[in-house]
Amino acid sequence: MARRNFLTTVGATGLGGSVLALTTSAGPAQAVPGSAPAPAADVTATLPYPTHKRPFAMPGVKEQDWTGALFVGEGESRFALRVGLLTAQGRLIREKMTNYLWRIGPMAPDGAYKQVRVSTDDRTVMPAHLEALREVIAHPQQWSQSAVADATVKLPQLEQKYAQTQQQKRTIQVRYARTADGGGLVGAVTALDDDTTVVLELGTPWGESAAFALDGRSVIGSAPGLLDAELSGHIRLSPGEPADSAGCYASVADMTAAVTGGTGAAGNVVAGLVHRLARGQTITFTARVGARPQKDDPAEAHEVERALAAAEARVRDSNLTGSGSVGRAADAVRDALSLNTSYDKDHLCNYVLWGWGGGGGLFTGWDSAFDCVDAALVSRELAVQHETDVFDAPAPPNQVALRGPRYDQQNSGPMHAYAVWRLYTKLGDRTVLEKAYPALVTFHDLLPEWDTDKDGLLESPYFGDRIGGRGNHLGLDDSPVYAAYHRVAKQGGSGDRRDNTDLTDVALNSYYALLAETLAKMARVLDRPQDAARFAAQHATIKRLLNTRLWHPQKGLYLSRYLDGTWNEVVTPTVFYPLFAGLATRDRARILVEEHLLDPEEFWGDHVIPSVARNDPAYCTGGPVHPGSEHFRYFDRYGENSAPEQWLGAVWPPMNFTVYDGVKRYGFDEAAGQFAARSTAMYLDAWDKEGWFPESFDPDPGQSVMGSAVDTAWRTYSWSNAMAVQGLHELISDNPWGGDPSAIMFGSLALPGTNTLANVHLRGHTYAVSAGPDRTTLVRDGHTVFRASGARVAVRNFVLGAADASFDVNADGPARVEVSVPGGRTRARKVPAGRSRVEL
C-alpha cells in the first residue's frame, strides 16, 4: 500500500538502498495546444558557469513554493508540481507559504533532497503575544491607561483566536528525492494531524502553455520548448494510490474552487489530485519529465521511502555539515540557502532568492552579495551561478543604465566586488572575475558625482525630505545618522536624479575605498597593471583623507561630518567600517575594538551588534522603558513594533558581517571569535525555536516576542545567514585581504567548546576542520595535513606546497604544531603563546 501510518512504522532514516533510477519509456503522444515562442538557440551549452543538463527536476526553485518542485524538459519546457494544504475552513494554501513554514531541512543545495514542514497555523498569534498582553494587565502601573485598556480588550479575543487555530491546525511534512538520472523525483507527504487534506497540483511555474490530462490514477502533461518550439517536454505524476478526487481544470482559480468544495470549469491548464489523510498517514508519488511521454510505472511506497532515506543520509555525507555550538550552524545555513535557491527563468540558472522569499526574482542590490559569499561555503555551483546572474541582469527601470549591481545603492557595487573577489579566493576561478570587472570599473568611475565639494571624499546622496529612508543608498534605510543632512543641488552627473547633501559619510567612503582596493586586486590577477596602480592609489587617497577629516580624536571614533565642519555624533556600527575597508591605522583600530566594540555600555554583550550604540540617545527610543516589567523592558502594546526594531537598535546581519570581517582583517582574533560566536548563537536561537532565519535580531531579546529574532522581521530572509557564516568562517575560510589569494585561514581562539566543519570546498580541495580548547586539526582530501595540540590556535596564510608549508599562527598558549605534506613526512615544531611565523 502506498498510504500507511508513517508515524507508527520504521522511520525513513532506518531504511537503506539507493535512489530510484526510474527510466523513461515511450507512451501515447499528447497534443499541446496554443502557440509557443519563436525557436531560440540552446544557450545552456555556452553559459560560463555550471548549469543543469536537460531534462532535470529540482525541488523548490520558484518563489515561496516551499512544497513545490520544478521540472524542465526538452527545449526548456517547464512544469511545476505543488503540494497544497487545505485549512479547516476549506481555504487552499498552495504558494507563497512563508508564514506557514514551520521546519526546514535537511536539504541539499543541488536539489537531491528536500524536506519541509508546513502548517495552516501562520503564527500571527503566538503564546508570547498573549504573555505580553497579560504582562500589561498584571502591572497597570507600568503602562499607560490606553495600553491597559487596549490589552484588556484584545487579550480574550486573541486567546480565543489562538485556541481555535491550535484546535484546527493541520500540518504536513513534504519530502522529495531526485532520481539517479536527475529527470525525476520521488516524494512523500505525511499528515501530522487528523483530517488533513492535501492537493497534488501539476501545472506550469510561470503561466506557460501546457496541456494536462488524467490517465488512470496519474496526471500526464506536455508543453512546447520555450527555447525551441520544435521540441516538447512530457511529464507524468503518479501517486502510489488513487486520489480521493481528481480533475483537470481551465485555470488555477477553477482548480482551487473545485478542491475547496465549489465548482470549477474543466479544462487542461492545471490538474489537481485530492488526498484525505489521517494523522500519520503518508501518500507517496513519483514524477518524471522527458522527451517522450512517460510510462505509467509508479514506485511502491517502500521503494520511495528507501530512496528518500538514502537521499537524506547523503545530504550530510556530501554537503556542508558540522557539529558543536557554532559548527552545527553549517547544517542550518546549508538548509536555509537550499530553501531559498530559485531558478532564473530568463537566464536559465539558479540564484539565491533575496529577502523574505519573494521580491520578484533576482535582486541585484547589496543583499545578493552577502548571499554569494554565504553560498560559496555551501555550493560552488550555486554561488557562481548566482553572482554571474547578477552581472547578466539589466539595470532596473528608472535607474542609471548600468548592468550588474544596482546603482541606487552605492554599497551594491563595492559589496559585489567583494563577493566576486571572494569567489576567486575561495574557488580560484577567474570566470566571474573577468565578467564582473568591466561593470565594476564603470560603477566605481560614476561614484565621484556624490563628492559634493570635490575633495576626494563622498557625501551621502539625497533621498528626499522624509526622515525615513534617508540611508537607502547604503541599505541603512532609517538610520538616525542620516536624519539631519541638508540637500545640495547636484551639478552634472550620470543622470541619477538625486541631489547631493552636506554629509561626508564614513560608511559610504569605506565602501568607496573597499571597491578601489578590490578592483586593484582584480586588476593584478587580470594582468592590468595600469588599472591596478590607479585603484591602489585611489584607496591610499581615501585612507589619507578619511583619517585626516573623519577621525574624532576626543571620542576615538570615525564619525560622519558635515561640510561646515560640525560632527554627526550619532554612534552606529558604521564607526567600524574603516576596518573592513583597510582604512584604519593600527593604533586607531585598537582603540575602536578595545575601547568601543568590547565596551558593554556601547556595543558589546551577549547579543551583538546593535544598529545604534547602547549609550547613544537614539538607542531603543521607539518605545517606553519599563524597568520594573517582569518580561519586557521595551514594549508598548500588541501590534506595534518593539523599540529595538529597525534602526533604533536591531541587529542587522550585514552590519555584523562587516564588523566581523573588519575585526578579523586587523588580526583581533579573540575579539573576532567572540563576536562570531555571539552572532551565530543569535541565528541559531531563532532557528531552533522558530525555524526562521529572520531579517533582523533583537539586541535585548524578548521585547515583543521572539527571543533573539525580532518578531515582525521577515522569516526567511537570505542575508540572515551572514550571522552564522561568521562562525563558520572562524573555523575555516579563504584569505580575502591580501597576500597569497590561494592561502586559507582556520582555527579559532574563542569559539566555545570543540566545533567541526566538513565538506568545505576551497581551491579544488575538500576540507574538514576541528577546533577545540587544546587541539586543532585540518584534513584535506581525506589526509590530515595539520595538527596543533596544547592550546587554541588561529592560523592564517596557510599554504601547503608539494614539499613544504608556511603559515602564521596565533596561539593562546604554548603549542606543538605539525604539518604532514601529502606523500611526504610529518614535520613539527613548538610555538610560544602569541604570534609566530612558521615555515616547515
Entry summary:
The chain has 16 helices and 36 strands. It is α+β, with helices and mostly antiparallel strands and 840 residues long.
What can you see in these coordinates?
By secondary structure, the protein is an alpha+beta fold. Helix content is 28%, strand content 23%. It contains 16 helices and 36 strands. The strands form 8 sheets. Strands 1, 6, 7, 8, 9, 11, 12, 13 and 16 form a 9-stranded antiparallel β-sheet that branches. Strands 2, 3, 4, 5, 10, 14 and 15 form a 7-stranded antiparallel β-sheet that branches. The protein has a 7-stranded antiparallel β-sheet with strand order 17-28-29-30-31-34-35, with helices on both faces. A hairpin with an 8-residue loop joins strand 6 and strand 7. Helix 1 runs antiparallel to helix 2. The longest helix is centred in the N-terminal third of the chain and has 23 residues. It is globular.
